[in-house]
Amino acid sequence: MFNKNFVFGCATASYQIEGAPNVDNKVPSIWDNFTKIKGNIDDSTDGSTCALSYYKYKEDVKLLKELGVSSYRFSIAWTRVIDENNNPNEKGIQYYISLCKELVSNGIKPLITLYHWDLPQWIQDKGGFLNRDIVSYFEKYVDVITKALSPYTNEFITVNEPQVILTLGHMYGVHAPGLKLSTKDLLVCVHNLLLMHGTAVKVIRKNVPSSFIGIAPCMRPLIPITKDDLLYKKCYEAMFYLDKNGEFVNQTPIYLDPIIFGNYPKNYYEDFKDILPDIKEGDLELISQKIDIIYYNFYTGTYASLDENNNLKIADMSKGYKTGNVPWLQVIPSTLYYGPKYLYERYKHPIAISENGYCNDDILSKDNKVHDEERIEYINEYLKELDKVSKEIDLRGYYYWSLLDNFEWNNGLSKRFGLVYINYSNNERIKKDSFFHYQNIIKNKGI
Ligand code: FCB
To answer: N or C, fewer C-beta in 10 Å, the chain?
Structure first.
């Protein structure tokens, strides 16, 4: 049983559920363009034909209300709020005001993600994350939207999964904007992203009374295969060691150390000494303003053991484990025990799980139902572990990913994570069995 103030919510993101790409003066985002290029999306779909929440948001709020969540995490499309001349677009702003009003009048608190990957294409054309001007563009957008939404909420997430933005979007090029940058350029992007975060914190503090702010990175934690103090210690150390030879932009300390401790890890300066970005005076102060909570997205973990010399041995997770309908999603429930525990131990901030969920091969039965047993089992097993760690750390909430089936980035519409099935031929919303299961969990504050 979770404590009585524990928040149960659901999460979505603008590009994945809204549709309506050319409506009400919206300008193109990098995802609008990336999805048009043949071969970028596995099933050749794009976000324009998704759940169409832009039109059906009232129906979606009704679903949230029936589900019983007290909070809804969604993201704002920057491309609806600001036009290509960097001026506010009233129609787009009005949409998010209407959505917030609908939520609040149904007793649901908005948790707003300011950046969930749909960068305006016109900013990408000026260099995107490589150009420090992105920080002042973000400042303007955050100023406009937080002023408009401050009557409805005080809770904000600045950036979703910096790791994925950099690793998949800028290192391997499988997400928009499809770049494969050098290490030197990646370090510039990381620094500009951190400046965007810091600038957003400053602007929100100014615009929103009693603001409550976090960032939402992601992690695939190492899971000790046995209970063993030395193994735990080695896993913990590995999670927070910035390894220049690994996917360093996919690692937690390059983001959270500057934000929480006010500086990059020590070895960053040595390991990258010839290619450091331009860190100006005042940058680290801006980046490290106080935040109130660390949100974190967790889906899966990687087992680790010790070899005969007591060195960490990392398991190959690609075979032998139950896996969801996307290849990276091994079902490892103790992810929700170890992940939050490591984070709390290092950064000593309140923590909430801003995403966790299961991609299932959902099938609509003849009687219009979806029996998604695997998802129910996943939720149960993961929440048991989360419940355990909630007795050891300051844990505030859990957001299931996702309310609706949606556009799963480079995998497209065919990968389904929702509690609600979307019939893409007519956009009908159908509650899966897991919807009713999660509803019960929320009612009972536990499984
Ligand atoms: C996370 C993303 C989210 C969704 C889930 C499955 O990496 O933040 O938008 O795609 O994965």
So the answer is: N
